């Protein structure tokens, strides 16, 4: 890809350019053992225990969309990042950058959504910050949330842990969030409405960890979608990952919308799904635990970790062919989270 001297929207896509920017600009300059792991949450040894710590910013446009809004998205996204380390999410910060002119009614609606999402996830908002900027200097409302959770003793869940022979599971259908944002933003309507899957998944993770001690990796496939997230894990673990196209759940409405607009659902963002990589002996128990959660009814085994082609993801297509499934290249849908 051509080098650029300026930041592009594609640098925020979650794909190759995002990876290059993070590694070359931030990790290379600020490196330490915790940052270098490149997990969604850092695992910190403090006072004899372990804490998970994460932060994220939300700039989604529009701020209200089918299935959620920027407030629900901020709480769920940070809770899910904490849960990917196996942590029990406890406390969140809430920083808001508000553009002058935003109706107070809209701000109140977002705050009520934050309150409801935090209650469902069992977390408290314990600190925050508010800034107001001039008209035209932001896009209605941006939110930053940081989160702290407690990691139970004995857990070591990280993107570096995938091993050949492990099973790759997915908690449900892909592409719902990205296509819901796209439809709302562009004014598209489909025969069957598409809604975001935005949801807190810490309850699901707790159920998984209650039935298995062999969970290696947990990761929510947000920006860049399932394909990019699996590539991140394959790179971190230096293992191969093979998935079966027929096994990946995709709702008919999402598939139709993707075909109409020219998107591949494997690269479309999700905000309420989880990739689980675990020892094969525990796969049935874990799958049952996921399906017992309200957000995991469509869970499926979608592939396995292999010793072949370390760092690469292979797709077995519906026709039986095999092809390399690369990381997202360039910009697909900006500002979807």
TrEMBL record:
Domain PurM-like C-terminal: residue ranges: 163-314
Annotated InterPro entries: HypE (IPR011854), PurM-like_C_dom (IPR010918), PurM-like_C_sf (IPR036676), PurM-like_N (IPR016188), PurM-like_N_sf (IPR036921)
Domain PurM-like N-terminal: residue ranges: 39-151
Sequence similarity: Belongs to the HypE family.
Protein known as: Hydrogenase expression/formation protein HypE
Gene name per UniProt: hypE
